[in-house]
Amino acid sequence: MTTQTSGALCAVKHPLSGAVIQRDGASANLPILLDATERARLFVRLRKGGSTVPRFDWHAVGQCECGETSCVLENVSVGGEYTLELELRAARGEVIGSASVNRLLVGDLWILGGQSNMDGWGKLVGTEAPSRLVHAFYYDDRWDRAADPLCWYSEATDSVHWPVQDPEQLAHSAKNDRRFRQQGAGPAVAFGKTLVKRTGVPVGLIVCSHGGTSMDQWSPAKLSEGSASLYGSMIRRVKAVGGRAAGMLWYQGESDANKGSQPAYRQKMREFVAAVRRDLGSPRLPFIYVQIGPFFAGAEIAEHWNALQADQLAVEAELAPALMAASIDSGLDDLIHLDTASQRRLGRRLAHLAEILVHGRTSLSRGPRPATVRFADEARTILRVRFTEVNLGLWPKRNIRGFWAKKDGRDLAIVRQEVDPNQTETVVLRFEEPVPPESALWYGLGVNPVVNLVDEADLAAPVFGPLTI
Q1: Domains and CATH numbers, the chain
Q2: Do residues 419 and 394 make contact, with C-beta atoms less than 8 angstroms apart?
Q3: Parallel, antiparallel, or unpaired for β 4-7 and 95-114?
Q4: Helices (DSSP H) in 52-187: which residue ranges?
Q5: pTM, 2 dp
């Protein structure tokens, strides 16, 4: 997608072809920035689907001087794809220069941050099909329709993403990546398409994530390093597309699920979110993130993995406006990366949460959250686990998998896990023997648990525990 120019118009610097302009309600003001080589009047027209958009037939928007000129096209309705046409006209009305910028959208911009599961590392089989109403701002500062893979490190404008520094090696890496890439399916395209389907608002994805990165690598303290840091690059890229966004999607934590990093994770998350909101001048920027999922690893890491998942669940209320999506019921394409089908499923879950935070869908709930745990009998063999924020009811009704109880390191046998047919937000656990006091209950214990509890909107129950019972 290229911007076409001729004559006295040297370049249209903004908007770029394919750009998504962040809306305000039902419309947006469209800033225009261009270079001209002659003094003339600037006329613009907006077209969609081959027809002129009402109110935006050819009309004068300003006087161009030699050099850089700016103006604003006001109240462009949500939607697209639009074509913006520009003409420079001399005093007698003759056209002395022209340009066109195509495939413009007015909608919502979403920042994509985190590590490889946000990049997308699912196999490139059965990926989400692209949509003309979901565009991406790629690492090379180019807008285009969003299609997996979204992340091409070797093509990045910002050096923080480069796998090598030598220009020749970098070009070679980029060429080979395009020829041989077999992984790269992520959640974002499905997220965007689902939101468009449910709301009618186009979506722009600002790609900023980078695989294998920790909270320290995303530190806001590195802002001054600019494009040489993940945080600095992210802020630069958001500002490059207008400086505003509808919200942020975040999937990160695997690199911090260890003895050295996990204890500080919760505080670093709070500081990170606060800094993003501050540095973008948006104190209520919606933040939607993923609780890390399964990992095909040894049991030695389970303690820290589960502790970080517990941190992510606990910090949700402290980051408001923020919501968390669970991913523990996902499949894997390798040791740690969600498979393609699970990534698409996760994208739909994230879109559900965006409907709540950004579109105000009060009829929707954020997904199951553990609320109360109590025994229903004096013998302590029937335990009721009640959830809040459930959409319609929990599923499956029987043969639930994922709950685990222990006492002093000894497993306590749960012989049945099922939904109460009369209170469908409650799971009933039946134990083989009376449960000793001060026992502990988990859901999703370990790094690769067998779990299947969701609500009727397919929002998964998160990993939680230990809860004292």
Answers
A1: 4-105 (2.60.40.10), 115-357 (3.40.50.1110), 369-468 (2.60.40)
A2: yes
A3: antiparallel
A4: 116-119, 167-180
A5: 0.95
